[in-house]
Amino acid sequence: MSERGETYVPYWRRFPPIVYVMLALFIGVQAAMSLAPAETQNAVFDAFALHPNRFTMSGGFDHWYQAAVPLIAHAFLHVGWLHVGANCLGFVQVAPILASRLGQFRFFVLFLVSAIGGAFMYIALQTTTPMVGASGAICGLFAAFFLSNGRTPREALAAPGVRQAIVLFLGINVVLVGLSGLPIAWQAHLGGFIAGAIVYPLLAPRAPPAGPWG
Predict the structure, then answer these.
(1) Chain centroid to CA 169
(2) Are the beta carbons of 201 and 138 closer than 8 angstroms?
(3) What is the DSSP annotation of 68-102?
(4) How far apart are CA 10 and CA 198, in angstroms?
(5) Residue 210: inside a domain, yes or no?
(6) Run of H or E including 188
(7) What CATH number is attached to the domain comprising 85?
(8) Which of 25, 41, 166 is nearest to 91 (CA)?
(9) Is 23 part of any domain?
(10) Alpha-carbon distances, residue 210 vs 110, 111, 147 (angstroms)
(11) 17-47 pLDDT tens trace
């Protein structure tokens, strides 16, 4: 019970339903892939992972949806439980706040646009290695979160704390990851972040409340 006599509800139980749905998708797809035979896993990755070399002049697709579907579907595939766990952890840091502020539909649009932005940047800067994972889309969510910490994105960017947080975030998730040599798609992180920053002002309420950096 709270001091006012109200029943205390843990924070995680107050998440908008879309947050639970997307977490269930991430975990459920990984569980299904883990249980599937190797040939099925290979077929799924071949169909739904992002293959940059297929977007070249010599790659080509037989149907438009073979190009369009992986731009989004790659964000719901992962290469193991550590991968999906790390992305779920990053997702829950900002998803409940953004879903509550934007509404569930606009939040989902933000996620999808960020995933597509990350995919396009990865295609532009990478030509061989297939890519899966939600991290590019999640970077877009973080961009939106930073811009939400003010009544307008411009006001948010005027705050030194927001600018410092953005530099730190990009420094870790783009620069350090890129220099590390690890098989992590820093290109998708950058593209997702840019896409999220561009689309958030179009989706945001006209006068959101100032955040902790306001």
Answers:
(1) 14
(2) no
(3) HHHHHHGGG--SSHHHHHHHHHHHHHHHHHHHHHH
(4) 33
(5) no
(6) helix 186-203
(7) 1.20.1540.10
(8) 25
(9) yes
(10) 20, 22, 10
(11) 999 999 999 999 999 999 999 999 999 999 9
Q: What is the H or E stretch that residue 123 is in? A: helix 104-125
A 10 A CB-CB count for 152 gives 16
Please tell me the predicted confidence (pLDDT) of residue 57: 66
Q: Which two tokens stand for residue 117?
A: 């932005």
Residue 1 has a pLDDT of 47
Is the residue at 168 inside a domain? yes
Residue 78: partners with Cβ closer than 8 Å, 6 or more residues away: 26, 29, 30, 84, 87, 132, 133, 134
Report the alpha-carbon distance of residue 128 to residue 172 in Å, rounded.
Answer: 24
Q: Is the pLDDT of residue 76 over 90?
A: yes
Q: Could you give the CA distance from residue 94 to residue 164 in angstroms, rounded to a whole number?
A: 17
**Which residue, 79, 76, 110, is CA-closest to 198?**
110
Range of the domain at 80: 11-203
Rg (CA), the chain: 18
213, 161 Cβ separation under 8 angstroms: yes
Question: How many domains does the chain contain in total?
Answer: 1
- For 164-206, write each residue's pLDDT tens digit: 999 999 999 999 999 998 899 999 999 999 999 999 999 988 6
Q: Is residue 6 part of a domain?
A: no
Query: Length of the chain in residues, anyone?
Result: 214
pLDDT per residue as tens digits for the range 103-160: 999 999 999 999 999 999 999 998 789 999 999 999 999 999 999 998 889 999 999 9
